[in-house]
Design brief:
alpha+beta, six-stranded mixed beta sheet, 3 helices, 6 strands, elongated
C-alpha cells in the first residue's frame, strides 16, 4: 500500500452561502442608456449623427455661429425653445451650402417665444462642433420661423 499523504476534503459552500456572497458583492455598473444619433439622451447630452456625445458649451452670437458653420460645424435647430428635450432637425449638405449665402442667423424675434444659439462640442479631443438654433432663432430661408 501507498503511504501517500491524505489531502483533506474541502467543504463546498451551500446554495444559501453562495446567494449571500452574491448579495454582498459590489454591484456591476449597468450599461449606459441606449443612444439614438441625432437625439438627446436621458442625461441631457446631445448625440450627433455619427454617435458622438456632445455637451453644451454656451451661447453664441450670430457672427460666431456663421464662423463656426463656415469652418465645418454641423448645424441643427429645435423649434420649441425648451433648451434640450426635443429632438433637433439636422441640416444636410445642401442646406449647409445654402447657409453660406443666407446672411446671419437671427435671434431678435417679435414672438414671445425665446430664441438663442448654442455651441455643443464633443467627440475625440473635442473636434466635433454643432451650432444649435433654439426656439424662434432663424437663419434665412433655410431655418425659417416655426411658430
Amino acid at each position: 500500500m501507498c503511504d501517500a499523504q491524505q489531502v483533506p476534503k474541502t467543504r463546498r459552500p451551500s446554495l444559501a452561502e453562495i446567494a449571500a456572497e452574491l448579495r454582498a458583492a459590489p454591484k456591476r455598473e449597468t450599461a449606459p442608456d441606449p443612444v439614438t444619433p441625432g437625439r438627446f439622451d436621458r442625461g441631457g447630452h446631445l448625440i450627433d449623427l455619427q454617435g458622438n456625445v456632445l455637451r453644451r458649451e454656451g451661447k453664441l452670437t450670430a457672427q460666431e455661429a456663421v464662423a463656426l458653420m463656415r469652418s465645418g460645424a454641423a448645424v441643427a435647430y429645435e423649434g420649441c425653445g425648451c433648451g434640450g428635450g426635443c429632438d433637433p432637425a439636422w441640416l444636410d449638405e445642401a442646406e449647409l451650402a445654402a447657409l453660406a449665402t443666407a446672411g446671419n442667423p437671427r435671434t431678435d424675434t417679435r414672438s414671445s417665444q425665446p430664441a438663442w444659439i448654442d455651441l455643443w462640442t464633443g467627440g475625440f479631443n473635442d473636434t466635433v462642433s454643432l451650432v444649435l438654433l433654439n426656439g424662434e432663432a432663424t437663419w434665412g430661408r433655410v431655418i425659417p420661423r416655426r411658430h
